[in-house]
Amino acid sequence: MPVLIESPEGFAERAAGWIANAIRSTVETRGSCAVALSGGNTPKEVYRRIPALPAVPWRKVEIYFGDERAVPPGDPSSNYRMAQESLLGPAGIPAERVHRMEADRRDITQAARDYEALLPEALDLLILGIGTDGHTASLFPYAPSLAERNRRVIQVVGGEPLTQRLTITPPVIETARGLLILARGAAKAEAVAMALEGHLNPTLAPAQLARHGIWMLDRDAASRLRATY
Ligand code: 6PG
Questions:
Q1: Ligand 1 atom nearest to CA at 135
Q2: What's the confidence (pLDDT) of residue 129?
Q3: What is the mean pLDDT of the segment spanning 27-55?
Q4: Which residues 6+ apart lie within 8 Å of 194 measured at CB?
């Protein structure tokens, strides 16, 4: 379901508030909250706003990731680093509750196996972005990863520049109890329309795997949608 946020200044604030609320209510009902973060510039601006929000029960939150490049944690392109700087550090979330995808390990196949053993059966909140090519997490158009049904985390090569990565697989998106997709800007409009209203073919448009989630869109990202929501 798309949620249109008209005010450009309000986007990050509104999405941050939604995430904080989702965490609060999950902790209230389930006692804890397993959140998986995505990379990307849109999420980053949202994450930065969360630490200032009141009454988020961080002590009951476990943090996971949806994908990661095969780079060390301090690398500028590391999703872990971005999350650490924008949200996890400022919110004071202790290291033992932050589960980095160790895509930089020499044995990346084993790193994938270890990470899927670590992931809870279902995430309480999975936050995703969408690329202009329609990818989400590191599930890229036409990639064999899109057909994966048994593994929950796998290694892939993809993106620009082409990089080795770890990514969650389609079943992790399907089983998440809460799913939030963040997209801003006209460059995303076509991919968003394909994801939400296109003929169902996740091989071509991987973000369709998240069609059932809450899509927070600014006016530009929503500009190619045909239906009015
Ligand atoms: C990553 C991602 C990726 C991202 C989208 C959107 O690490 O690159 O997890 O799926 O969320 O590409 O990124 P932007 O918000 O920067 O456009």
A1: 10
A2: 97
A3: 97
A4: 134, 204, 205, 207, 208
